[in-house]
Design a protein that fits this description.
This protein is an alpha/beta fold and about 475 residues long. The protein is built from 19 helices and 19 strands.
Length: about 475
């Protein structure tokens, strides 16, 4: 594929600032499967002995701490299925089918709010899916009104109210409406701008669709725009993805998420439409990853960690510098210390010291609410060791370093002794140049940052029992 002049110049700039100590052989050696640690313990530790009553009790306990609230709403509908997708979704073009779902969401809100002190501010709101912009404008208004009636939404300028948008199903009127509803951050799905790749994944999306929305969003003053890309899709090459990156850099989003495609056709039926022979090989994927990091770094983005990049003045970058960055089920977040209430099919809550998950089946979700009970189908209550390890893993994943003295003071433990086994496990990583020590602080090197999931796995007490689990690959 020929490279246009702007792409070539960006590649040249990136090559002049190569990532230090890049080692393909080392990355291949460590490129195993492992958790993404959007929670600890991971969802594999959730069990069905955890009941709706346990969720209700956690909601009531959370009032004592009075932490702000974060609300996640799962909208599972999509008009068209993308072949790479591993999300919980329902394919339909009939927006009227959303009405009974919105009614169930309201029932869930009512049941949850009964146990909550709703004077607590809602600092974070996130609509994900599926495709939240599948909803009509009036349905979006209705959902916001219900959320406000049950929980009391915020007009604080520092609130973080985000929605995931499919540029194929939104226009400038959609953005104006979302702004009037209080959203101040947008995440647009792009994945790849190559027509050949788009055809292979059943997602025809010319650049102009994304560009028009971004121009309007900037004009309207949305605080932060995120674009989602995926590497490892069929027919992608280092050169073709560099072309996509060059165009994305021109669009100038505040944040970028560049996800590694996990091909699991035995688990996700749409992926069976993707031919494995069309996927880039391991060496090509590493080349794509390296070019991505080099081009985005040269363009002024900070590599937050894993698959997230942000401008230096973005709230994610500032939170990481301040040590307040957090991981949750939507990835990295700048709003720490919130109780997260998940609403909708498959949604997961993190309230006080529990995780609680709703059914992944729409029928089971509806049946639970029709019976007048919270839809929790499984979950887990964290013990003290879970809480300590969750803190350690989150700080390592967010800060790219781990201050054992701070951990010891926070939890009243001798951290070096407590984690002797984990630290012993990490000796090989230290010998391979993935970590260094600065006093009692473990610091991930540039290569270690790419393998941060592997470093976090050393602190996971559940992992040895999950040997048969299917996780995505680390790189």
């Amino acid at each position: 594929m020929p490279i246009r002049a702007p792409v070539a110049s960006l590649l040249a700039l990136a090559a002049s600032q190569p990532m230090p100590h890049w080692d393909d052989a080392l990355l291949r050696r460590y490129d195993k499967s492992g958790p993404r640690y959007t929670s600890y313990p991971t969802a594999l530790a959730f069990h069905e002995r955890f009941t709706p009553d346990d969720t209700a009790q956690a909601l009531e306990r959370s009032n004592q701490r009075g932490r702000p609230l974060s609300l996640y709403v799962h909208v599972p509908f999509c008009r068209k299925i993308c072949f790479y997708c591993a999300c919980n979704k329902i394919a339909t073009k009939d927006t009227s089918l959303a009405e009974p779902y919105l009614s169930r969401l309201d029932r869930e809100m009512v049941l949850a709010a009964r146990h909550l002190d709703t004077s607590r501010p809602v600092k974070q709101l996130h609509w994900g899916g599926g495709t939240p912009t599948f909803l009509s404008l009036s349905q979006m208004s209705d959902l916001i009104d219900r959320l406000d009636a049950r929980f009391g939404l915020s007009d604080d300028p520092e609130r973080d109210y985000a929605i995931e948008i499919d540029p194929r199903e939104a226009d400038v009127f959609t953005l104006r409406h979302l702004q009037s509803l209080g959203f101040n951050r947008l995440s647009l799905g792009v994945q790849d701008l190559s027509p050949q790749v788009q055809k292979a994944i059943n997602r025809h999306q010319p650049r102009v669709l994304t560009e028009t929305l971004m121009d309007e969003a900037h004009r309207l003053g949305f605080r932060s725009l995120n674009l989602d890309l995926i590497y490892g899709l069929p027919f992608q090459t280092e050169r073709s993805f560099a072309d996509t990156l060059a165009q994305v850099i021109e669009l100038n989003p505040a944040r970028l998420s560049v996800f590694n495609y996990a091909h699991m056709p035995e688990r996700f039926k749409p992926q069976r439409r993707i031919k494995e022979d069309d996927l880039p090989g391991a060496e090509e994927k590493l080349a794509i990853l390296r070019t991505t990091i080099e081009m985005l770094t040269a363009a002024g983005y900070v590599h937050i960690g894993m698959d997230h990049f942000a401008k230096p003045d973005d709230s994610l970058t500032i939170a990481q510098a301040n040590g307040t960055l957090q991981r949750n089920f939507q990835g990295y977040s700048s709003h720490a210390q919130c109780d997260l209430i998940g609403l909708g099919v498959s949604a997961i809550s993190r309230i006080d010291d529990v995780y609680a998950q709703n059914p992944t089946s729409l029928g089971d979700y509806e049946a639970a609410l029709d019976e007048g009970r919270l839809a929790t189908v499984k979950g887990v209550r964290l013990n003290k060791d879970d809480l300590i390890r969750a803190d350690v893993i989150e700080r390592l994943m967010c800060d790219m370093r781990l201050d054992l003295n701070a951990i010891g003071q926070r939890w009243n433990i001798e951290a070096t002794d407590y984690f002797a086994g984990a630290l012993d496990t990490l000796r090989t990583a230290e010998q391979d140049g993935l970590i260094t020590w600065q006093g009692a602080t473990l610091v991930a090197t540039p290569m270690g940052r790419l393998l941060i999931r592997h470093l976090a796995m050393a602190f996971d007490a559940y992992l040895p029992g999950h040997t048969g689990a299917r996780y995505s690959r680390i790189v």
